[in-house]
């Protein structure tokens, strides 16, 4: 039953979205469902995700807005273009098999225009939908990107970088890079697009270390020295996952880090 996995669901969603979530059980005949929302908002004041069993092997997920979401909707309408782009990219990263539906809008260019906005998806599993593996899959493949998109539009968890003045040239640009690298939604999309392996050496830490393998770091490809002019930012193409060793290695050259190609060339040259 979904209610038996409430703690697991909350943990998966908080890690993926960078914001704390709240859950409540909703009775639905013999099998219960869950309503999920951001913890610092009252349930009716923002986006709500309904998670329901759909037959024996599927989950139905629907995102809608509560009846008193006017302030949040206004906040979303004022979201910067980069945040809107990231939110759309997160939604398009949902597995094709989930059959995402946004009534009246396209998957690639949707807008939260009013409180009637909804996104729905149905994900079918090979085993029963009540199992832990199926629930985790639905969280990671559907609910996390949906709620992460809303978190980005609302503006959750803005990261204040540490003072880097005097450490490197282009400190202001470096701060911007670090903010992007540390944004949990940027990290989420980067890993969903490129896979859970190092873009340089190819290691898959979670396969090697199991639960202790969540160590991949996000690297910004654009050198700091080239970020003084405004640049259209796309986390799908501007970020790559690196293992801690490769990430540390590319930054051993300052102020401009080694490129991925340069580091890979060094690795090939020094293989014994």
Q: Could you explain the architecture of this structure?
A:
- The protein is an alpha+beta fold.
- It folds into 2 domains: 2-154, Yope Regulator, Chain: A (2-Layer Sandwich); 171-269.
- Helix content is 38%, strand content 15%.
- It contains 10 helices and 7 strands.
- It has helices at 6-17, 70-77, 81-92, 132-154, 171-182, 184-194, 205-209, 235-238, 244-250, 260-269; strands at residues 21-26, 33-38, 47-54, 58-65, 119-124, 217-220, 239-242.
- Strands 1-2-3-4-5 form a 5-stranded antiparallel beta sheet, covered by helices on one side.
- Strand 2 and strand 3 (47-54) form a beta hairpin.
- Helix 3 packs antiparallel against helix 4 (132-154).
- The longest helix has 23 residues, at 132-154.
- The model is unreliable at 163-169 (pLDDT under 50).
- InterPro entries: HNH, HNH_nuc.
- Residues 198-253 form the HNH domain.
- This is HNH endonuclease.
Structural key phrases:
272 residues; alpha+beta; Yope Regulator, Chain: A; 2 domains; five-stranded antiparallel sheet; two-stranded antiparallel sheet
The CATH architecture category of the largest domain equals: 2-Layer Sandwich
How large is the count of helical segments? 10
Helix content: 25-40%
Low-pLDDT segments: 163-169
Mean pLDDT rating? 87
Strand order of the largest sheet: 1-2-3-4-5
First-last Cα distance: 53 Å
CATH topology of the largest domain: Yope Regulator, Chain: A
Number of domains: 2
- Tell me the number of strands: 7
